[in-house]
């Protein structure tokens, strides 16, 4: 036999360990004659036969950037000998290092010393040396195992074969994966050559042991991968010949001779030519040794796991969770218990297979009797037959074809019998459902199964279920960067975040996008981001070679029943971030029970997600795919009908909320009729809970209705916004509310509906007032009045002048304010709108106060209180209490004002009115200020500022700062007070507000001595 290839290495090594925390330590090489040593706790370990990695005990160590890992690899492969700085510069950069190379080298060394510890990396004679334990490097153990295999081969070829198989298991992909520099490239080639040499040696032993039939498949693949390696061709010819396939063996020689002549212009070597001649002569010495043929019951150690990817990224928590489950499962073979099953579920493209293969490789030392793998083709039209899969598993475990039973039950029984007492991991990838895999599960403790599927296998008894979500933004960016390269991403980080965001943080989509960019050196990240920004083209852009996000989604869609497919399509149409069960039922036109059954089925097969109990959502890319299907498979009329049913549901339900807040309000008589009954709420709290939980979906439906152009939708959308007025006044959803209202203004032009325009402009004006944009608000309210009169809309004709009066009061135009509110009051009374009458009277009291009629203002405020208490108003009662507090404070009735505001504050908090909560805290601060309770005033105004800075706008923030300054002066903190007033002056001046002059007077009154404290 040819001598086993070994590199020159000084390290001695007993085993690399990828075990997870909590994994029991055992001898690394079961059945070996060599001594197995336990690693000291916290000792350093390294791997170079794949990505360069390092551990301290069970904890992974970050080894830094590629250049830094290249330095680590160069030191590791010197076997503890010192490398000079010059040698390391050549290793990392070659003959033309950059000017900063020496500084960079020192920086890398410093970081490695910090990560590994001062005793590991030492400076010696102007260079560096890595001092590690003799058993700390994976390639050293391979050298030792190869030497041991060579020593025992003459007397125990079976043991030699096991030793080589164990050595080959230590490879984890391409050696020194991803490392730059000429040294890494040279060593990568050397280690790859060593690897294939060891494989050839192990295959020689396979043939020597009579496993020629089993070796044919592997040799065929290897010969195709390394077409010019004559030794592999020779082994393939011998395996074929011993398998009774003489013609194929001769065909291999003919193919090899032609290939060598075409590629190198040479003939096959003497060894291959001699073997060819011996096969022609049927040399009896070529026959397999009879004594070495394995019995039917002998177990072969399968190693079927696919290669793991070198750029595996993130998923740390899930990797630890699965690794711990599987590692502990192996221990049950000695401790008793049951066989372990872990099932990973998730949408197509989320990385289930990549994760499972990575974890399986990491824990395979816990399963020394082998690892089985099968793609169960669960998304294909014909998933893999369990009977055929078991046949493949049995052959992999050494059972000859004649010994494999015919029936599924008998195959499963034999499979479990063979695995009894052994530690084998079965990776069942891409399963269709639990029924497909039940007979494929090992039956004894010590074995484990790791399953991936788009179906959440809740019916798989005793399984540990893991739902795999998309990556976090940080993980997604890291994966994208590892594929594209840091140099292309570092200068365009925001564009890279836009790319992974457009990919929905889905690993498959990120890989495709990154692969496209990596293949196009003239593209920047920004170019790719712009291409993916177009939602209608995004799925078509996410295609590279035979990978395509759309094709992955199509596999799952193709298995849906007609009812499920319709639900999948129609539920993608609403723009909200998620959807409730009741809203989904409206979209589909079904009852909630039937809808829930459909939605839960879609959740089980990972086409939608359950965001919370009775709430559902799409992944962004799946939504785009579902909408494409809806455009192809649903008529425009049906798509419009689905969205119309949703709008009806929201409007009818919002009317129910409005009724609880404003019982008997005439506003409800001026709304468009709906065909959907909406939800019935048992209490005011339940109604408000629904409104605020549905806010994003409801407002998205309004904006979508405005843009969609479905007939009749703009009127109902405007009425929905009106009945959801509480969302606007809370301040929480002001931005989205304003977008929806402005969209309706634009839609009103398209449908020539002045009623919609008037109501929409009124809502825009109210939002502008709340956020302190008073001039814009007044203009929108003026235009709303004009179109409202043209449309003869009682709502716009009454609420618009009321709003203009509020703005006039703010600008100290008290006479004009009085006129607007008087006009609004008449319009509300003409319509029989008692709620509106109360609102107009509240504001009228402020006009009276501004005009110097203080007692009249107080009396008007009390009249409003009587109206609202009679109506049983909720939130509006808070408004009345708040309004009354202003004239009460002005007339010195501070205790009564404080009582009103305290009650109002509770009303607003119960109604989730954050804006009004902030304003009430501000007014309480004014009451305390008037009573010279400085500390209480400062405390309340500070609380109000937290809210008003978010939802109140600059004008209200500036007013609060003025009050805070007064309170601080009372607390003998004039310097801080001046700072507050300067901030307020800046805000008022920026707005062109008249209050700026008042603040200037305050600042002028602060003498230098008083400001100095």
TrEMBL record:
The keyword Transcription regulation applies. One of its GO terms (molecular function) is ADP binding. GO terms for biological process: phosphorelay signal transduction system; regulation of DNA-templated transcription. The keyword Transcription regulation applies. SUPFAM superfamilies: C-terminal effector domain of the bipartite response regulators, P-loop containing nucleoside triphosphate hydrolases, TPR-like. InterPro entries: AfsR-DnrI-RedD_regulator, BTAD, NB-ARC, OmpR/PhoB-type_DNA-bd, P-loop_NTPase, Sig_transdc_resp-reg_C-effctor, TPR-like_helical_dom_sf, TPR_rpt. Keywords: DNA-binding, Transcription, Transcription regulation, Two-component regulatory system. Coiled coil: none annotated. Residues 1-35 are annotated as: Disordered. Residues 35-132 bind DNA. Residues 35-132 form the OmpR/PhoB-type domain. This is DNA-binding transcriptional activator of the SARP family.
């Amino acid at each position: 036999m040819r001598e086993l290839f070994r590199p020159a290495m000084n390290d001695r090594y007993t085993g690399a360990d990828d075990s997870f925390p909590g994994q029991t330590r055992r001898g690394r090489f079961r059945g070996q004659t060599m001594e197995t040593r336990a690693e000291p706790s916290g000792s350093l370990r390294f791997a170079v036969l794949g990505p360069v990695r390092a551990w301290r005990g069970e904890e992974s160590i970050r080894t830094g950037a590629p250049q830094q890992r290249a330095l680590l690899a160069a030191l590791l492969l010197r076997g503890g000998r010192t490398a000079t700085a010059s040698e390391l510069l050549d290793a990392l950069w070659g003959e033309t290092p950059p000017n900063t190379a020496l500084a960079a080298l020192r920086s890398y060394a410093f970081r490695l010393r910090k990560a590994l510890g001062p005793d590991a990396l030492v400076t010696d004679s102007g260079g560096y040396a890595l001092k590690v334990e003799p058993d700390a490097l994976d390639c050293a153990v391979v050298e030792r195992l190869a030497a041991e295999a060579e020593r025992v081969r003459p007397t125990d070829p079976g043991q030699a074969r096991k030793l080589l198989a164990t050595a080959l298991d230590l490879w984890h992909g391409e050696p020194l994966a991803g490392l730059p520099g000429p040294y890494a490239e040279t060593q990568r080639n050397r280690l790859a050559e060593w690897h294939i040499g060891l494989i050839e040696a192990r295959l020689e032993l396979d043939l020597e042991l009579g496993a020629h039939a089993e070796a044919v498949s592997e040799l065929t693949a290897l010969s195709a991968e390394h077409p010019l390696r004559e030794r592999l061709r020779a082994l393939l010819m011998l395996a074929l010949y011993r398998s009774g396939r003489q013609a194929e063996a001769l065909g291999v020689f003919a193919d090899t001779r032609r290939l060598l002549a075409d590629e190198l212009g040479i003939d096959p070597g003497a060894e291959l030519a001699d073997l060819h001649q011996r096969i022609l002569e049927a040399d009896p010495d070529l026959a397999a040794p009879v004594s070495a043929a394995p019995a039917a019951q002998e177990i072969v150690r399968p190693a079927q796991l696919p290669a793991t990817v070198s750029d595996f990224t993130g998923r740390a928590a899930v990797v630890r969770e699965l690794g711990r489950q599987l590692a502990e499962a192996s221990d049950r073979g000695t401790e008793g218990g049951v066989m372990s099953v872990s099932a990973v579920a998730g949408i197509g493209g989320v990385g289930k297979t990549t994760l499972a293969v990575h974890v399986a490789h990491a824990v395979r030392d816990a399963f020394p009797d082998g690892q089985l793998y099968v793609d169960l083709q669960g998304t294909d039209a014909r998933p893999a037959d369990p009977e055929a899969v078991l046949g493949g598993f049995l052959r992999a475990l050494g059972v000859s074809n004649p010994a494999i039973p015919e029936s599924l039950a008998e195959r499963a029984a034999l499979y479990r019998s063979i695995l009894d007492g052994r530690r084998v991991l079965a990776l069942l990838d891409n399963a269709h459902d639990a029924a497909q895999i039940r007979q494929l599960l090992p039956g004894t403790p010590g074995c484990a199964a790791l399953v991936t599927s788009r179906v959440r296998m809740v019916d798989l008894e005793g399984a540990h279920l893991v739902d795999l979500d998309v990556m976090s933004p940080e993980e997604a960016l890291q994966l994208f960067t590892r594929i594209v390269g840091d140099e292309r991403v570092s200068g365009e980080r925001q564009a890279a975040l836009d790319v992974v965001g457009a990919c929905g943080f889905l690993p498959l989509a990120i890989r495709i996008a990154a692969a496209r960019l990596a293949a196009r050196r003239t593209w920047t990240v920004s170019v790719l981001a712009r291409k993916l920004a177009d939602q209608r083209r995004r799925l078509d852009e996410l295609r590279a070679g035979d990978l395509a996000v759309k094709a992955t989604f199509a596999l799952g869609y193709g298995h849906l029943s007609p009812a499920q497919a319709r639900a999948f399509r129609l539920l993608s149409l609403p723009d909200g971030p998620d959807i409730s069960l009741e809203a989904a039922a409206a979209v589909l036109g079904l009852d909630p029970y039937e809808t829930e059954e459909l939605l839960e089925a879609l959740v089980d097969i990972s086409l939608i997600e359950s965001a919370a109990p009775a709430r559902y959502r799409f992944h962004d890319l799946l939504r785009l795919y579902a909408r494409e299907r809806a455009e192809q498979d649903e008529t425009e009329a049906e798509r419009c009908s689905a969205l119309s049913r949703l709008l009806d549901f929201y409007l009818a339900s919002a009317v129910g909320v409005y009724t609880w807040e404003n019982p008997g309000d005439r506003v409800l008589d001026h709304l468009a009729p709906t065909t959907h009954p909406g939800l019935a709420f048992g209490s005011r709290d339940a109604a408000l809970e629904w409104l605020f939980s549905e806010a994003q979906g409801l407002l998205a439906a309004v904006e979508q209705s405005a843009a969609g152009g479905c007939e009749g939708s703009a009127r109902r959308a405007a009425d929905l916004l009106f009945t959801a007025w509480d969302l606007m006044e809370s301040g929480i959803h002001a931005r989205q509310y304003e977008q929806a209202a402005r969209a309706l203004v634009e839609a009103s032009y398209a449908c020539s509906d002045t009623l919609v325009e008037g109501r929409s402009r009124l809502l825009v004006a109210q939002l502008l007032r709340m956020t302190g944009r008073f001039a814009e608000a007044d203009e929108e309210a003026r235009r709303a009045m004009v179109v409202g009169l043209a449309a003869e809309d009682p709502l716009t004709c009454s609420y618009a002048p009321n709003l203009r009066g509020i703005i006039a009061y703010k600008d100290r135009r008290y006479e004009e304010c009085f006129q607007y509110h008087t006009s609004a009051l008449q319009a509300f009374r003409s319509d029989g709108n008692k709620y509106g009458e109360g609102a107009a009277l509240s504001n009228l009291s402020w006009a009276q106060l501004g005009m110097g009629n203080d007692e009249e203002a107080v009396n008007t405020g009390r009249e409003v209180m009587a109206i609202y208490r009679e109506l049983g108003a909720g939130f509006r009662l808070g408004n009345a209490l708040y309004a009354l507090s202003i004239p009460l404070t002005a007339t010195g009735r501070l205790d009564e004002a404080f009582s009103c505001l305290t009650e109002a504050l509770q009303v607003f908090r119960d109604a989730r009115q954050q804006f009004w909560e902030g304003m009430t805290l501000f007014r309480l601060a004014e009451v305390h200020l008037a009573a010279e309770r400085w500390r209480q005033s400062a405390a309340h105004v500070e609380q109000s500022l937290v809210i008003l800075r978010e939802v109140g706008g600059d004008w209200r923030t500036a007013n609060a700062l003025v009050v805070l300054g007064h309170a601080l002066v009372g607390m003998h903190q004039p310097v801080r007070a001046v700072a507050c007033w300067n901030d307020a002056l800046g805000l008022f001046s920026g707005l062109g507000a008249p209050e700026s002059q008042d603040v200037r007077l305050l600042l002028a009154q602060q003498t230098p001595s008083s400001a100095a404290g």
